[in-house]
Amino acid sequence: xxxxxxxxxxxxxxxxxxxxxxxxxxxxxxxxxxxxxxxxxxxxxxxxxxxxxxxxxxxxxxxxxxxxxxxxxxxxxxxxxxxxxxxxxxxxxxxxxxxxxxxxxxxxxxxxxxxxxxxxxxxxxxxxxxxxxxxxxxxxxxxxxxxxxxxxxxxxxxxxxxxxxxxxxxxxxxxxxxxxxxxxxxxxxxxxxxxxxxxxxxxxxxxxxxxxxxxxxxxxxxxxxxxxxxxxxxxxxxxxxxxxx
Length: 245
What we know:
Distance between the termini: 24 Å
Number of strands: 0
Strand content: under 5%
Largest sheet: none
Mean pLDDT: 81
Radius of gyration: 16 Å
Structural class: mainly alpha
Number of helices: 10
Helix content: over 70%
């Protein structure tokens, strides 16, 4: 099982760095396929997200693709929402969480598919309080499902706010830093973290993150969007298989 978890960590870390996700939208369904129940899988996923998002955001900042200003406001909102999200997960059944997760994947896939590709560096400037509220709402829903929030934030930035796709991806991963740390702290208080399995996956994911960020910087924006759509579609199929087959 340890070797499987390590391999899974490297794979999810690479996807995290390349797609700007915490990794939970892929990791949670994979862990469920391995026979781990969804609430334990969510806890393991949150540990992995802390590691991958901090390291990936550091790499993105060094490469100049991370906009820190607006990201801070969204992130602080995400921290508050993420802290509350862990308590939401204790009040909702596993089946309800699975169907909510399915709905989020469908929404994200639609927004990414319809987003226009933009390669220049300009972004729409938004009111900090709007960003804070957006971050808080996303944090509540995402951490209760074991995902970092970029599953919703990246499509919103690219599809609604017209961020360049690669900067939206970097901002999405930066958001995960705040929401996942808050989620980890609150999940530890309610006892939903399998730390041993989580550390195996999380440490292995660091190698994957480095590979993923390097790959992201070597593909065009149009191809990056295509790969994002494919990745969300695969995650959707995995979850559908688990729910109905």
